[in-house]
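Ticket closed. Logging final result for Molybdopterin synthase sulfur carrier subunit.
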Amino acid sequence: MTSTVEPMRITVLYFAALREQSGKEQEIRLTHATDVAALYAELAAEYDWDLPQNRLRAAVNHTFCPWQHPLQSGDIVAFIPPIAGG
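Final structure:
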């Protein structure tokens, strides 16, 4: 018998270039990604993002975190691209 793992419900917040490329400010997403890096890879493939992971910061529940940070259902994840100022 094979057990199926339910996807996690994650809120994703998009900023700057990622907001433009995804066409949305946020979304609630069902995912099997186990950490922040896997979630970013999943989203980058879907939305054809051109920013490499090493150019971004990630935050879970409003706190910056490493890319290997594990995800839990109900988390709020933000990917923050570099900000150009002038």
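Residues 3 and 32 are 14 Å apart (CA to CA). No further action required.
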